[in-house]
Amino acid sequence: MRISVKGPIISDSDQWIYDWFGIPATSPTKVKQQIERAIRNQDNEIIIEINSGGGSVYSASEIYTAIRSFTGSSKGQITGLAASAASVIAMGCTQLEMSPTAQMMIHNAATGAQGDHQVMDDTSDFLQKVDQSIINAYAAKTGKKAEELKNMMNKTTWMTAQEALEHGFIDAIMFENAPQAVANADASGMLPQEVINKVRQDLLKSQKNHPIMANSIPEPSNSTQNEPKNQNKGDNSMNLEQLQNDYPELFKEVKNMGFKEGVQAENKRLKEIEDLAVPGNETLINKAKYEEPVTAEKLAVQIVKAQKELGATHLNNVKTDAKPLNDIPGTNAPEVDNLTDEEQAVAALTKMWGGK
Known about the structure:
Mean pLDDT: 78
Helix content: 40-55%
Low-confidence stretches: 178-187, 210-217, 233-237
Number of helices: 14
CATH superfamily of the domain at 2-173: 2-enoyl-CoA Hydratase, Chain A, domain 1
CATH topology of the domain at 2-173: 2-enoyl-CoA Hydratase, Chain A, domain 1
Radius of gyration: 37 Å
C-alpha cells in the first residue's frame, strides 16, 4: 500500500480545514488510518511517499512512531523535499530512498514565546529537549553521534540525495543513473495559525445552526499555540496581500464567505431596525439605516431619548398654556365649593375672559 506524506505536517484538529480548501496536508490520523487499512488487508509492505516542507514536531513524532510500529516492511521514497519535521518522519522507514532531484533539510526546532527572562529560559530549555528528541530519530537511522547531528542542525543543513546518502540519512538513491539536480526548496506551505483560527471561528459563527456542520467543526484550540514547528525559519505572519498572493483560491473563498456573512448581517440589522419603526421616528429610522448606520440596540436607546425629550417639551408647553389660569387672583375667584365640576369650569373660564 502506498501512503502519501505531502504538504505541511499538521495536527488532527486542523486536517478538516486543509481538506475543506483542498490543500494537501498530512496529520497523524490520516497516516494511521492508511496503516490500519494495510494491516486489515494483510499487506506486508507499505510505501511512504514523502514531499513535505515540515510542520508540527509533535505530529511528525506521532507519524514516525506509527511507521516504526508497523510490523511489516516500510519503504520510504523522498520524491521532492523532506525538510524539518518531514525528515523526522522519513527516519521511521526501514528502507529509505531519495530521488536524485530531491533534497533533505534538518535544523533546530522553533516556537514563539512572550514573557520575562524565566519564560525565555524555560522556552529555551524546552526547545533544546525537542531538538534532542529529533536527534534521537536521526541517530537511530544514521548511527552518527549526537554532537555531530546537533552541529548539523545548528547551522541548518540542506542535503542533496548524494549528501544524504553519504551522511547515512538514506539507504539508496532512486534511479541511480539519473542526473542530479537541485530541488525547489519551497517553504513548508503551512497556513498561518491566525488564518486557521479565523476560518474556524468564522465557520462556527456561520454554521452554528446547521444540523450537520455544527457538530463536525471542532472548537478553536490554543493547545498548539506555542507548539514548536520544525520548519523553515522566518516570520510566519501574513497580511491580506500575502494571503492573496500565496493562496489565491483560499483568499477568494474567505472573501466570498465574508461577503455572504456581511450581506446576511446587514439584512438582519435592517430587519431589526424596521421592527422598531413607529410613527414619529421616521427621521431616526432612516438615519440609522443609511446615513449613520447603527445597531437596533443603539437605535432603541436613541428613540427612548427622543421620546423623553419630546415628553419634556410637551410638559413645558402645557405649563405655558396653563399660565393664564394660574395668574387669576384668588380673591376674585367665585365660590365654587358647592358648584358642580361643570359649573366650576364655566366660572373659571368666565373669569379668564374678563367676566365676573
